[in-house]
UniProtKB/TrEMBL annotation:
Main location: cytoplasm
Catalytic center residues: 145, 169, 238, 241, 264, 273
Function: Site-specific tyrosine recombinase, which acts by catalyzing the cutting and rejoining of the recombining DNA molecules. The XerC-XerD complex is essential to convert dimers of the bacterial chromosome into monomers to permit their segregation at cell division. It also contributes to the segregational stability of plasmids.
Name the UniProt record assigns to this protein: Tyrosine recombinase XerC
Gene3D superfamilies: 1.10.150.130, Intergrase catalytic core
Species classification: Bacteria, Pseudomonadati, Pseudomonadota, Betaproteobacteria, Nitrosomonadales
């Protein structure tokens, strides 16, 4: 292995072990650096200059890479060159001053309360649907990420305190409340789980084979469930997390509490839900205010 590739692998190893980045993040950074290596050709990454990095970014943009993807790619490049600079491997950071195209601001999609009710009030027809109902109730009740729910073990649920403890990004652990409907659905699933799960399996949600349910399987089951309930739109797990945050903020107005329950390290990430809240208020205004009604 040549020195440049070894440098990239050292960086990725440091990213995984020292910064506790997720395997998904490490894999994404590996792809982004491979894309840069493809543009660089025979030139070592450590020897690239600002102009070449800028040209590489423009080439990716010209190939149709979305602004969000370009921003993530540039973030990986910056992280790598800053890592090199801290170790004295380069005299100057060639990514300094580079800017990705501006991303259009998109608000997360959230279900209306009556849509969530239609989705979650349906009764399961078999033991797998009993599991599914428990998963979806927990998603909406506690605002979990898909990865958090997939990695949740049985001992993560504390029925005595009415809480669930999950491990989120950067291996950070948080404990959030579980609502009564989700608690009831979980108890029903645990009655069935013993006949499905393998003896040594710790996962709360297991497949028909008795092993931990995969992320993709959870996504498919939610899509199937939403179709069965006649919602008429594609529902994905993150939509339930968005709905949790939006509805909680509408009811409480407590941004800090929502931030803590979502596991956001920066409140700016949570503030996007204030825009959703404003949309809700604007609809109420348009419908109710005498001077807002259309003639």
């Amino acid at each position: 292995m040549d020195a440049v590739r070894l440098g990239v692998e050292d960086f990725l190893a440091d990213l995984a072990h020292q910064r506790v980045a997720s395997p998904h993040t490490v894999a994404a950074y590996r792809r982004d650096l491979a894309a840069l290596a493809g543009v660089a050709g025979d030139r070592p990454l450590a020897g690239l200059d600002h102009a070449l990095l800028r040209r590489a970014l423009m080439q990716l943009h010209g190939k149709g890479l979305a602004a969000r993807s370009l921003a993530r790619t540039l973030s990986a490049w910056r992280a790598y060159y800053r890592w090199l600079a801290r170790r004295g491997a380069i005299a100057a950071d060639p990514s300094d001053g580079l800017r990705a195209p501006k991303q259009p601001r998109t608000l997360p999609k959230a279900l209306a309360v009556d849509q969530v009710t239609a989705l979650l009030d349906a009764s399961p027809d078999d033991e797998l649907e009993t599991r599914d109902k428990a998963m979806f109730e927990l998603f909406y009740s506690s605002g979990l990420r898909l990865s958090e729910l997939a990695t949740l073990d049985v001992d993560g649920i504390d029925f005595a305190s009415g809480t669930v403890t999950v491990t989120g990004k950067r291996s950070k652990t948080r404990t959030v409340p579980v609502g009564t409907k989700a608690t009831a659905a979980l108890r029903e699933w645990l009655k069935e789980r013993g006949s499905t799960a393998l003896a040594e399996e710790l996962a709360l949600f297991v497949s028909r084979r008795g092993t931990r349910l995969a992320v993709r399987s959870i996504e498919r089951r939610l899509g199937r469930w939403a179709t069965k309930q006649g919602l008429g739109l594609h529902v994905h797990p993150h939509m339930l997390r968005h709905s949790f945050a939006s509805h909680l903020l509408q009811s409480s107005g407590d941004l800090r509490a929502v931030q803590e329950m979502l596991g956001h390290s920066n409140i700016a990430t949570t503030q996007i839900y204030t825009h959703l809240d404003f949309q809700h208020l604007a609809k109420v205004y348009d419908a109710a205010h005498p001077r807002a009604r259309k003639k």
